[in-house]
Amino acid sequence: MAEGLPGFTRFEQFAVEVNGITVTGRISRTDDTGGPGGGSSKPALLLLHGHPETHLMWHRVADALAEHFTVVAPDLRGYGGSSKPAGEADHSTYSKREMARDAVLLMEHFGSERGFGSFALCAHDRGARVGHRLLADFPGVVSKAMFLDIAPTLDMYAATDRAFAEAYFHWFFLIQPAPLPEALIEADPRAYVENIIGSRYAGLGPFPAPVLDAYVAALSSPGAVHAMCEDYRAAATIDLEHDRADRDAGLTPAVPLRVLWGAHGVIESQFDPLALWGKAVPGATGRAVDAGHYLPEEAPEEVLAEMLAFF
Questions:
Q1: Record: fold of 11-310
Q2: What three-state secondary structure class fits 270?
Q3: Each residue of 139-164: pLDDT tens digit?
Q4: How far is the C-alpha of 7 from the C-alpha of 22, rounded, in Å?
Q5: 135: Cβ–Cβ under 8 A, 6 or more apart, which residues?
Q6: What does each C-alpha distance from 14 to 50, 70, 95, 138, 249 come to in angstroms?
Q7: Domain AB hydrolase-1, which positions (predicted)?
Q8: Cα 145 to chain centroid, rounded
Q9: Can you tell me the distance from the alpha carbon of 237 to that of 119, in angstroms, rounded to the nearest whole number?
């Protein structure tokens, strides 16, 4: 990684053109033969990050995973170094359908180079919402999936009450029409990042200064705040349309799903995540982890053990 940033010593950076945008991130090196399989023969694992972060959120587990997998850790469109196209009136540019297509095409690109087809998926927060759409729209592509600290989007909006709205106020702030949330956040991106992350169970303690600074720098780049808002606007509009259509059609992805959530977070206190995921993806298993929202950064050893056991 860049000087001062921890983790990802087994990785190289990439910038790949897919689906009309550039997706950036890191992929484990083919010349790294440590661990079972060695090099490009290792099974593929896609890691998708959450808000308001980038692929750097995996820095505490990435190198250990690279011993066993060909690991691909991209920035979602609108985040990190990836493209930040302007949103459309219907917010479709940032629909989870488009973001899932980005991910699948990216894995097809690397699969042709590294010799893999299907892949495993571990995704946190916003990335897990992309992952849920990926399972629905691209059946058979993912061998196993793990979602971290979310419940299905449709269920979360349907059960919204005052307690949830206060805990996840940003869900309702970011979806306000442009340019109000953009203008307010762009005035002080660091205040937004540090307050959103720092107000959770673990505070800012688990986040090394260089990583936190990288999250702030990413949100400070041109178009980043607008893209983040469009991600949430899509989740409250077009994504719900897609989710309702799937439920009306009885679509339930047939893939092994493991869900983990923070024992000290909003998902634990406000929802029954295993029951909800069991309806969306039959056979889903899971449990709470001794952490808040940012599981791979707050409880990396426990999350890593779960990932290695499941995948």
A1: Rossmann fold (3.40.50)
A2: helix
A3: 999 999 999 999 999 999 999 999 99
A4: 23
A5: 142, 145, 253, 255, 257, 281
A6: 19, 14, 23, 24, 38
A7: 43-300
A8: 12
A9: 29
The rounded distance, in Å, linking the Cα atoms of 134 and 139 is 8
Taking only the tens place, the pLDDT of each residue in 160-210 is 999 999 999 999 999 999 999 999 999 999 999 999 999 999 999 999 999
Q: Which residues pair with 124 in a beta bridge?
A: 148
Based on the number of CB atoms within 10 Å of its own CB, is 100 exposed (0-12), middle (13-18) or buried (19 or more)?
Answer: buried
Amino acid at 62: A
Distance CA 27, CA 103 (A): 13
Residue 34's pLDDT band, with cuts at 50, 70 and 90, is very low
The model's confidence at residue 6, banded by pLDDT at 50, 70 and 90, is confident
Dihedral sign of CA atoms 48, 51, 55, 56 in order: negative
Catalytic residue among 63, 125, 243, 246: 125
CA dihedral 278, 281, 283, 284 (to 10 degrees): -70
Q: Cis link prior to 52 (omega < 30° from 0)?
A: yes
> What pLDDT, on a 0 to 100 scale, did the predictor assign at position 154?
98
Q: CA-based angle 120:101:244, to the nearest 5?
A: 95
Q: Closest Cα partner for 237 from 171, 169, 145, 165?
A: 171
Q: Are strands 142-148 and 285-289 parallel, antiparallel or unpaired?
A: unpaired
Burial class (CB in 10 A: 0-12, 13-18, 19+), 141: buried
Q: Domain limits of the chain?
A: 11-310
Q: What ranges make up the beta strands (E) of the chain?
A: 11-18, 21-28, 44-48, 70-74, 119-124, 142-148, 257-262, 285-289
- Identify the pLDDT of residue 30: 87
Q: Which of 51, 91, 226, 293 is catalytic?
A: 293
Concerning whether 293 is annotated as a catalytic residue, the answer is yes
The mean pLDDT of 224-236, rounded to a whole number, is 98
Question: What is the DSSP secondary structure assignment for residue 292, as one 8-state letter?
Answer: -
